[in-house]
Design brief:
Layout lengths: L17 H10 L4 E2 L6 E2 L21 H13 L3 H9 L2 E5 L18 E8 L5 E4 L1 H8 L3 H14 L17 H12 L4 E2 L11 E3 L5 H12 L10 H11 L2 E3 L8 H11 L4 H32 L6 E8 L3 E3 L13 E10 L4 E8 L7 H15 L6 E5 L10 H12 L5 E5 L9 H13 L7 H9 L8 E4 L6 H8 L12 E5 L5 E5 L9 E4 L7 H5 L15 H10 L5 H18 L2
């Protein structure tokens, strides 16, 4: 794999010079706040009164002279310069007279030197003082003087602080090239979404990560049990700076239109035919980019304090199969299926999950419409009057008259004045829900859920910041039946629509847009059947059209029953009761 010219490196987020400001304030004697615990530290204050009865000239030096030294010291505002300043005031000397200690030879004593301390006077003169007076004058601790004194004895003149600073750059070109060659040898694939391919981003297997690559590199280059001189930090640095790679681009998310154009371009027999397919592909991808820009702008705008628009995105996660057993019989048996609808509240970046199993409902518009209606009426806490929803283009789930009946009901009952449903280009959705589902899949990967409550616990702990809220639901309502008795959408052209708008001012008309352009016109279409008014939806009682539980066939009941012996004893009752309830439905 060629190393891209435009590399991608994860940059450190710029959070201002907070650390430098704290260090500067600390070294200048000003008040500051600790970084981690946010504990306020008062500034250094000059001590005018010094009570000293030593033999030196501490009492003779004036307060003004001491204050001048205090201000001179803290004005340096640099730790190393302050250390050099203190170094000029400390002088080691040999011990003139020893007291009796627990040693026979003076060389056995841990104290081999004594120190003299001085304070400078105006001009070039100085006066000897005791350690206590020097510390009180400069508002420093005796511990700082003791550490500096030991450094003077060990290093002589230099008292430079060796903490922090810039580390020397690595200059091992041989091992750097080995790392580059190793990473380049890993199979990767390109993304099909980008029209211009300017980023050169490629994707490695979703089963890999940097740690696994690093361990594989060590294993490959280990000689006689000796670890190569490559740290994980250095390996990670090269991976980010020299390559434009990411992990886990899902193959199922490929756009069928892009794939079709790719095959057609490769199979073109003439340059004219090839150019025609390339133009169609570029137009398709430009539409996808326009939709993504619009969605990104909607998310930014809804977070503004002045915004009156609430933004939601929703999608179904891939089906969740339980119990997660590993014996070979599982490969030939149908498992119990759970369905998860994710709704992402873009205003606050929070995810809400509706979880149900296959006995309660399917993956159709009745289930999705019921969850959307429940979320808006019971979970969504907002005073905004406009609602924008983003979802994929699936006709059976999102683009149908049942979902329109949900939106008309919400507006008629006064929850919003306007609802706009927007659809990104097929195959290029990139909804926030996808990232939420990624967190859940990552958390579920190393676990083996057996019952729905195991899935609930996995979802609840999948993300620490803004954790997901999960609601298990079993009640769904027949929104398609409501739509069939109240709406007529044959002239709406919903399959070609990229935006649908329902307004309070004209509830019987739905506005349709087939382009993402701001200047493209809205087309108004009447959808109410004769004698149907907004009062029908305002007074609608959805409790009257509740769906009946779904039944299994006899083969499914038999296969689920065969799994029970392989399930942990604590969860066997759940499946036993489930099978018995399905058998009771069969006998009705």
């Amino acid at each position: 794999m060629d190393i891209p010219e435009e590399i991608r490196a994860k940059k450190r987020k710029f959070t201002g010079n907070v650390r430098e400001d704290v260090k500067r304030n600390k070294n200048s004697g000003s008040p500051y706040q600790t970084l981690k615990q946010k504990r306020p530290i008062p500034g250094k204050r000059f001590c005018e009164q010094v009570k000293c009865s030593c033999q030196y000239s501490c009492k003779l030096i004036t307060v003004a002279a001491r204050k001048r030294v205090f201000e001179q010291f803290w004005k340096l505002a640099d730790y190393n310069e302050q250390q050099n300043f203190l170094r000029s005031l400390i002088r080691p000397t040999l011990i003139k007279r020893r007291r009796h200690g627990n040693y026979d030879n003076p060389n056995q004593s841990r104290r081999q030197h004594s120190f003299k301390y001085f304070l400078p006077l105006p001009g070039e003169s100085e006066v000897q003082v005791c350690k206590s007076t020097l510390c009180l004058t400069l508002a420093i601790t005796q511990r700082r003087l003791e550490i500096l004194s030991q450094r003077i004895l060990s290093s002589g003149i230099s008292v430079q602080d060796k903490r922090g600073g810039k580390r020397p750059a690595r200059n091992n070109t041989l091992w750097k090239q080995k790392i580059i060659d190793f990473i380049a040898s890993i199979p990767s694939r390109e993304s099909h979404y980008s029209r211009e391919k300017v980023t050169n981003r490629r994707y490695l297997s979703e089963d890999l990560n940097v740690r696994k690559l690093y361990n594989a590199f060590l294993e490959k280059h280990r000689l006689d049990g000796t670890k190569p001189p490559v740290s994980r930090q250095w390996f990670n640095e090269i991976f980010k700076k020299e390559f434009s790679l990411a992990f886990g681009a899902p193959r199922v998310d490929t756009c069928p239109t892009c794939d079709q154009y790719k095959i057609s371009i490769a199979a073109s027999k003439t340059p004219v035919e090839k150019k025609e397919f390339e133009l169609k592909r570029d137009l398709h991808q430009r539409k996808a980019e326009s939709a993504q820009k619009m969605m990104s702008q909607n998310i930014v705008d809804c977070k503004s304090p002045q915004s009156d628009v609430c933004v939601l995105s929703y999608d179904l996660q891939k089906q969740l199969y339980i119990p997660a057993l590993t014996h070979t019989q599982m490969y030939y048996s149908r498992q119990f299926t759970c369905i998860n609808l994710g709704i992402h509240f873009e205003d606050e970046g929070k995810g809400f999950m509706y979880l149900w199993d296959e006995t309660a409902g399917k993956r159709g518009c009745n289930e999705i419409g019921s969850c959307l209606y429940d979320y808006v009426t019971t979970q969504l806490n907002t005073t905004k009057r406009k609602l924008v929803l983003w979802s994929d283009n699936c006709g059976g789930q999102n683009k149908n008259q049942g979902i329109l009946a949900v939106y008309i009901t919400l507006v008629a009952k006064g929850y919003f004045d306007e609802i706009v449903h927007k659809f990104p280009q097929s195959g290029h959705t990139f909804l926030s829900c996808d990232r939420d589902f990624g967190c859940i899949e990552k958390a579920k990967k190393s676990l083996k859920p057996e019952v729905p409550m195991d899935l609930v616990r996995i979802m609840a702990s999948a993300r620490l910041k803004n954790p997901f809220v999960i609601k298990c639901t079993t009640r769904f309502f027949n929104w398609m039946e409501i739509a069939k008795t109240t709406l007529v959408t044959s002239t709406l052209g919903i399959s070609q629509a990229v935006m649908l708008k329902i307004s309070k001012d004209n509830l019987g008309q739905i506005e349709v847009k087939t382009s993402y352009s701001d200047v493209a016109p809205w087309r108004k279409v009447g959808v109410f059947k004769p004698k149907v008014t907004s009062q029908n939806f305002e007074n609608l009682n959805i409790e009257l059209v509740e769906q009946a539980p779904r039944k299994w066939n006899k083969e499914k009941i038999k296969e689920i029953r065969s799994m029970i012996p392989f399930i942990s004893p604590a969860n066997q009752d759940f499946y036993q009761n489930l099978v018995e309830s399905q058998e009771a439905l069969q006998n009705e």
